[in-house]
């Protein structure tokens, strides 16, 4: 209890924020909240090249691959103030994610390729457009790159579980991209009404968050992920996960927490089928 309180006091919350990925119309990020954004600006371009059947999302072969491959992941500690240690952590985390998901794609008989990782210390424009104010990370599907921002504030007080979860979320979007799920999402969004677009966005984001939790479970013993750190993270999202977004494109806090728990408890991508979930489950 005491430890959790001190974690919060130490500003862990800052690192935990940044649920995920905003959609094109949702750029009004509130300052002070770290958000993570990939914009489907390149969606049309990608979609034009590739057919995007709905079944890629609702019935992905990834859902039938069982538990995510266990990965022995030891990305090391992030020493306070050490940019080098922070970078090493992000690179090693990416390796862990590559290993786990490559195995899963092999099981699903789907083609796998690694995302690029670009670590930045200031907000840079990228193939998907301008960096969204307040974002801590971005996955851009146009260049299949994860952009991870190291800020002075995070360097001062790095929280490994929070950073790992954020990165696994961005990687979750890469998984969606490779599996054809994102292409379906981008296409469906184009012909949807405003409220239907928001719901599609929530399905997309909540699934990335669930994939993230699936991965976090598999490294629980090696990172490690102490149960109290995980519980703290989920509780934080339950109470605050919706607050950084101008519209409900990421889901209510309780929806986010529910999908995190689902993924973490099952450790199976198959538990993350937000595309077939009831509208209530993605509210
Ligand atoms: Zn996201």
From TrEMBL:
Entry keyword set: Membrane, Signal, Transmembrane, Transmembrane helix
- Subcellular compartments: Membrane
Looking up Pfam families in the UniProt record yields: Zn_peptidase
Highest taxon listed in the record's lineage: Bacteria
Q: List the signal peptide residues.
A: 1-24
Q: Which InterPro entries match?
A: Uncharacterised_pept_Zn_put
State the annotated membrane topology for this chain.
Single-pass membrane protein
Q: Does the keyword Membrane apply?
A: yes
Query: Where the protein is mainly located, per its record?
Result: membrane
Q: What is this protein called?
A: Neutral zinc metallopeptidase
- The scientific name of the source species is Nonomuraea harbinensis
Q: What is the lineage of its organism?
A: Bacteria, Bacillati, Actinomycetota, Actinomycetes, Streptosporangiales
């Amino acid at each position: 209890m005491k430890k959790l309180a001190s974690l919060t006091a130490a500003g862990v919350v800052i690192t935990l924020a940044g649920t995920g990925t905003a959609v094109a119309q949702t750029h009004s990020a509130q300052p002070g909240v770290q958000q993570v954004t990939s914009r489907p600006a390149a969606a049309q371009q990608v979609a034009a090249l590739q057919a995007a059947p709905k079944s890629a999302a609702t019935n992905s072969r990834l859902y039938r691959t069982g538990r995510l491959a266990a990965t022995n992941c030891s990305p090391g500690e992030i020493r306070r103030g050490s940019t080098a240690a922070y970078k090493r952590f992000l690179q090693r985390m990416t390796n862990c994610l590559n290993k786990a998901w490559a195995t899963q794609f092999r099981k699903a008989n789907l083609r796998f390729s690694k995302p690029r990782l670009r670590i930045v210390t200031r907000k840079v424009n990228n193939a998907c457009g301008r960096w969204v104010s307040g974002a801590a990370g971005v996955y851009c599907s146009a260049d299949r790159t994860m952009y991870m921002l190291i800020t002075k504030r995070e360097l001062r007080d790095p929280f490994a579980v929070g950073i790992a979860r954020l990165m696994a979320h961005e990687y979750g979007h890469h998984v969606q991209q490779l599996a054809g799920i994102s292409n379906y999402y981008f296409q469906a969004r184009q012909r949807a009404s405003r409220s239907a677009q928001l719901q599609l966005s929530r399905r997309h984001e909540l699934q990335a968050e669930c994939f993230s939790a699936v991965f976090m479970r598999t490294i629980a013993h090696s990172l490690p992920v102490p149960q109290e750190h995980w519980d703290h993270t989920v509780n934080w999202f339950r109470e605050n996960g919706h607050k950084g977004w101008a519209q409900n494109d990421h889901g209510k806090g309780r929806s986010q927490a529910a999908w995190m728990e689902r993924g973490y408890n099952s450790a199976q991508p198959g538990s993350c089928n937000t595309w077939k979930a009831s509208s209530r489950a993605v509210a």
